[in-house]
Fold this protein.
Amino acid sequence: MLEQIKQTADFLKSKIPSQPEIGIILGTGLGNLVTQITDKTEIPYNTIPNFPVSTVEGHSGKLIAGKLGGVDVLAMQGRFHYYEGYDMKQVTFPVRVMKAIGIETLLVSNASGGVNPGFEIGDLMIITDHINHFPEHPLRGKNYNELGTRFPDMSEAYSKDLIARAKKIAAKNNIKVVEGVYVGTSGPTFETPAEYVYFRKIGGDAVGMSTVPEVIVANHAGIRCFGISIITDLGVPGKIIEVSHEEVQQTGNSVQPLMTQIMKELTVEIFKSKE
């Protein structure tokens, strides 16, 4: 595993002209943020050694290096999911590579179903915490001390500082945001009404099929995280309707400009705070 990470990181370093410190993972229907990235170098996943290939519609499958708001970033346009048949080491491999390249902050996005009755379709939910409901843990197995400690702390899986900054950015731009706990599940089925009720009862505000493994591994690697969900459907009793992947993409597309604004300004804020 260590050899594969080094091999992939060395390959990407040879392709990327700058030194990005901020990584971005874009979820279902949310890949258009890359249109805001300038000075782009695009690297298809299928050309990267040891990289899986995204098989999901709405996930382009490209790694993009460039500048967002003038700041060097490395963005994944399309992620890998447990339900595609990958194991958790494969799902989170890109995060390991990002760390080896020099990424210090990870911004993640996803589409999710809202189980908080106060949410509406199209809401942007800043993730304050998560519940891991996947059947396999990404840190299961041998621990490599070079990658992180055996028992990583998860008391602040999502950076409180970045959450506060994002809320100020949203307020300044009159963008409505909500906050909540994201429940990560294996998928690929959307939830049953009883499952929606269950996820609400255990403390969830939204449920989806990604993000949690990547954030766990990022924390293990010492990378601070910020996450945002677009609420694309509702799992609230009385508001549950049949939903398709296409409809999820459509809702994601409609709200993308707002999410992009927050992500872009947050990237600039992170860069300025280091100066």
